[in-house]
Amino acid sequence: MLCSVIGDDDKGSIFLDLLKKEKIPTYGVLQSSGRITTTKFRIFGNSTQMLRVDEEEDDDLSVNDRSKMLSNIDNIFSKEKIDGIIFQDYNKGVLNPILIKELIDRATKMNIPVAVDPKKKNFYHFTGVSLFKPNLKELKEGMKIEFDHSDRDILLSAAQTLREKLNCKYILTTMSELGVMISMKDKLDEKNIFIPAHVRSISDVSGAGDTVISIAALCLAQKCSPYEIAYISNLAGGLVCEEVGVSPINKDKLLKEVLALL
């Protein structure tokens, strides 16, 4: 169930029609007359994305829109069984500290796991979540540090410090061709698991991060182990990079690879 804000415009109507066509519920999506619908124009050449041009408005939601969105989400909580929540932050203005705190508080009371794909603006507002997934660039920017990707000691220290600061269960750091690392506290000890990337024929990285956080959230809802969360989500992110354009993960293909490699 998607919860967001789009414009009350032609592209917004097209977007809602696409959701309905895919049988995705639309009642969590608010159309606002004060915003435009974010649109990404991708330019391809030789089966490779060459350029992307965005049309968007990234100011914070108005108080009225924020209130309506929260009301929509509360309505979903009251009618549906929610197994997990994903915050997918793109710094577009929909997520803000007030809305983030309200939703995390609700999830905590209902014991619903929360996974976060962050950006710099709200980096430290996702306290108390289950899983926080920065990539290397976001980790460096958020922690205001610079280090070589191969320096595992600094990477481990940064992830552990961030986990303590956010008071979250897992930090899942994606590292592109280097794979992923998941950091947690195992009883009284800090524990980190590195999962190397699988060799792939990369066509397009669009949607890879979205796939990783989606599969990680599904694993959280299924109470998978930290190793399984990192391993399966890393595998899924690599699989979608073999497709041109934004493609959903093929669950049968993912299952086949998981069974073959685990």
Textual characterization of the structure:
Helix content is 40%, strand content 20%. With 262 residues, the protein is an alpha/beta fold. The strands form three sheets. Strands 5-6-7-8-9-10 form a six-stranded mixed β-sheet, with helices on both faces. β1 (4-7), α1 (10-21) and β2 (29-32) form a beta-alpha-beta unit. It is globular. The two termini are 30 Å apart.
List the main descriptive attributes of the protein structure presented here.
single chain, 262 residues, alpha/beta, six-stranded mixed β-sheet, two-stranded parallel sheet, 10 strands, globular
Tell me the layout of helices and strands.
Elements: E1 4-7, H1 10-21, E2 29-32, E3 39-45, E4 48-55, H2 63-79, E5 85-88, H3 97-109, E6 114-117, E7 131-132, H4 136-143, H5 152-166, E8 170-174, E9 180-186, E10 189-195, H6 208-221, H7 226-240, H8 251-261
Parallel strand pairs: 1-2, 5-6, 6-7, 7-8
Antiparallel strand pairs: 3-4, 8-9, 9-10
Helix pairs in contact: 6-7
Compact overview of the structure:
The chain is of the alpha/beta class.
Tell me the number of strands.
Answer: 10
Distance between the termini: 30 Å
Shape: globular
Major β-sheet strand ordering = 5-6-7-8-9-10
* Biggest sheet descriptor: 6 strands, mixed
- Rg measurement, Å: 19 Å
Helix amount: 40-55%
Low-confidence stretches: none
Number of helices: 8
Task: Report the sheet-strand fraction.
Answer: 15-25%
Name the average pLDDT. 89
Class inferred from helices and paired strands = alpha/beta
Succession of helices and strands: EHEEEHEHEEHHEEEHHH
